[in-house]
Each structure stands twice: as C-alpha cells, then as structure tokens.
Amino acid sequence: MAERLLIREATNGDREYLNAFVAADQKATLFHDPRWLDAVEKTYGYQCRSMIAERGGAIVGYLPLTLVSAPLLGRSLISTAFSVGGGVLGGDTIICAALADAAVEIGRRENVRYVEFRGGDAPIDGWSKKEGVYASFSKDLPADIGALKSWLPRNRRAEVKKALRIEASAEYLFSPQGDVDGFYAVFSGAVKRLGTPVMPRKFLYALKELFGEDAEISLVLRDGAPVAGLFSFWRGDRVLPYFIGGTKEAREIRAYDYLYFKLMQRAIERGVRRFDFGRSKVGSSHFNTKKYWGFEPAPLTYHVRLVSGRELPNLNPNNPKFSMVSRLWTFLPTPIANIAGPVLARNFA
Predict the structure, then answer these.
(1) 191 and 290, same structural domain?
(2) pTM for the whole structure
C-alpha cells in the first residue's frame, strides 16, 4: 500500500530538511530558496505561507508562497513574490496538483484576487497560462578562461574589447566586493530612467545579509564613487547576475559589458559553468542585449488561478494602465523617486 501524501504549511523546524530538498532538486531556482522568502518577509512584512508535501515523514514536494497584501492592488498569493521564478517542486502530477489545490484553499481563506506560480510544473485544472511575455536566458561557459573571448559572438567580442579599456584607465577601479549603498546609488537612478519605482534599499540589505557569500556586489568606481554595479547570486553550478544599474556615464564606457564579462571570468575561475542571465520581456532592450551575448531565449510559462479576481494580473510597464505613470516617473527628481519608489514598489510583487 502506497504511503499517504500529507500536505501542510512549512514551519521553521522544517528548514534544515527543506534546504536539503531544494538543493537536491535540479528544477529548483534561486527563488525557491527559503532565504529569498525570508528577505521578502523581512523587508515588506508579507507573510510566508509555503507548503510542503510529505510521504512517510520525508519531504517530496515544496511550494514557496508569499501572501501579498498590496495597498493599491489588493491581496494575492505568489510563488515567488518580488522574483521572476517559483512554482511547485515535486516528483509527479499528484504532488503538483495537491500543492496547487492547497494554495488555492489558502487563497480562498485569505480572500486573494489570484494565485500565481512563476514557473514549475503546470497545475491540472482551472488554471490559466501566461505565455509569450517573458523568456529566460541560460548557457554554459567555456571551461577555459582563455577561451572566453572567442566563445562570445563577434560583435559582442568587439564591445567587450572596448569595455576592457576600463582596466587601462587610471580613472576607474573595479571592486568585486562592493557595498549595498554604493550599488543602490547607481541602481536607483537607472531604474528611474526606465520609469520603474525602485525597491527599498532594505530589500538589498536583507538579501546580502541572508545569502552572505552567495550574494556578490561588484562595482566600477571613478574617484571612489560608483559608476555602475552588478548584484549577483552564486548557486551551485551557476551564477545569476540579477540586478544591474549605472549612471549615464556607465553606458558611455560600456561598464555593463565589463561587469558581465568580469563575472563570467570569475565563474570560470571558480569552476562554475552555468551563466544564468535571468528573465527579460520578449522584445525589450534587455531581451535583445542577452541575444547579442549569444544566449538563446527559452519561453517562460506562468500559471494563474483566479480566486476573487475577475481578470488575470498584468503588472508590467507595457500595460496601458501603467504606461503613462511609467513615462512620467522618468521626469521625477531622483531624491523624490528614491523616497516614493519603495512605497509604490511594494505593490508590484
């Protein structure tokens, strides 16, 4: 007789076993790591409501969940909030369906508008797919650091060659051990120019604290002041350059290309082969940039179940509801945007 499947909410006492389960699952992402949910809870106060599936006392499935209560956009249950990934980790459709059903039940009790899984196996019934909006980019690096330049497409190789002039200049300094404040100074201005409210500085502090050496900030400095910065995560056999930003000068000196190339070099030196360029909106400038680096897009599918809501969520700048606000945001003075941005950003989980 098969052992009964038990579905329950995860507790602090599950952490050691849950960490081991996530580390062993090849489909797990950075955003399945409980530390990501801890950072969200610590920063925004949104509750972690993660679920686990057990058989015979062993964890066989996991669903990271955050109960979001956004002041402007209402309540939702998301796997995983303030990220680009998530969804069910489990060995079969029975586990996936059971965890999905449990999430919907929590959503009903908490009167959320919808439940959203940003990846993972597809639930069976009653769920809608969000497709064609995002794609991910991931590729193996060469084993030899000397082969890295030739591994790049010819046009990107030429841009990297120009970017490496940073090292020949006495004006600039590269630091792979930057600080949150230095990174936030250039990141906040960059996202404002894109018309996006910046996240709270506290979120980056929480991520750096919780992930420790698994989180890295690299900076390009000029006279001690940051010009560009990259916030990356090391996870097993891969590295994820996740947040990047810079001043207007950063583009002129190709600091973004420089930071990405230096990260690739460090990954090869550490024996890390997979370079995970993350998610981009199809057709966006970031989407095209990653293709120029020689990475091929892999379409992403999200799964959504309406609970009390009547329409599927569409929380991206291309939505006409937000496009005008996004354009106006670019004209705000940076100090004002840095105050108002974190207040608004808590709505866009």
Answers:
(1) yes
(2) 0.93
